[in-house]
Amino acid sequence: MFKKILIANRGEIALRVIRTCKEMGISTVAVYSTADADSLHVRFADEAVCIGPPKSAESYLNIPNIIAAAEITNADAIHPGYGFLSENAKFSKICGENGIKFIGASPEMIDGMGDKASAKATMEKAGVPVVPGSPGLLKDLAHAKKTAKKVVYPVMIKATAGGGGKGMRVVWSEDEMEDHWNSARQESAAAFGNDGMYMEKFIEEPRHIEIQIAGDCTGKACHMSERDCSIQRRHQKLVEETPSPFMTEELRERMGEAAVRAAEAVKYEGVGTVEFLVDKNRDFYFMEMNTRIQVEHTITEEVINFDLVKEQIKLAAGEKISGKNYYPQLHSIQCRINAEDPFNGFRPSPGKITTYHEPGGHGIRIDTHVYASYVIPPHYDSMISKLITVAQTREEAIKKMERALDEYIIEGIKSTIPFHIQLLKDEKFRAGDFTTKFMETFEIKEN
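and the corresponding structure tokens:
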């Protein structure tokens, strides 16, 4: 087992990893930018190293500085959290070259799963259902039009190096293809330095359901059931829950088996997720594999009583999985509390938190790095905390969340708490009747 782990991240996920390391008897090193000098992850780590100024490119994305911090503190492993360098093949490779274990996927795995076109081909070969579309990258506009006729409109053109909704366009007819083709390529080139495009059938009334998986060094994998991440805005998740209100036992078995096949096909090592789109007929299609811990791993932990970060560290140290699959025994919901103004287009609201009071009681979990007088910096993701409830049923978990949101006091900045309060009162949400398009019609009313 590792003696010392450097956490190459910030905020709540850095603190989350530090807590598990302490319980495992592993020393921790925090890295931080000058903007995060007063963050709790810096305070609670055994050691802390400043790696640069506030700008991410000069601190949390600065590979030489992070490796130097690991070397001067004699860390034998690096945990990348999520975001930043967590799915960066170059970083994974450099860690290995410097004798430091990267607690995440290998460079080859990250490259293979990060390129969506090749990932899709790999999954198809493994017998995992994929969305009908182009067998590889589209050569040009003429190729795109020809492929669309075979796939049948509506279709979606996507950037092969994409993420966060960039380089994606829905095309309803051939008349629209040229304009969307040009704009998607330009956006992808600007965002990712790669204008490669592929095509998929556009799935109507889709739900975004992901399966948590774990794989070990022997090539064996297991799953920890599903999470429904359909409530999202501009491809950014807002609320997640498990089990999915759309799920049946038969569908859970089929999706779980497909996710395990996907993981074993690529000999996946570590903790990750296989993400699927599920249509109104409960047909599901592989979307992508995330080769890291997810923001919403918390709700899976709550319903199966399992520390996923601990499992991640153990697998990286060469330990084997138990071999069994895990199924939800309870119901859990997570609301992402962000420093954003929901009444003003979710505009970021950085600044000083003047008053901070967390809800408490049975079945309430809060993962956060903030406190009263903490200053939310403008340089990073606007997440304040993750508020999680767990109960015997979905209805009880919703009621518990409503009570928790009413108790949660954050003053000095705007937060998404008012949005979540309104969402939980929505009849369609309460009935579990929603898709990834839910937020396109949901109206947020100012009190």
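(Above: one complete record from the training split.) The longest strand covers residues 221-233.
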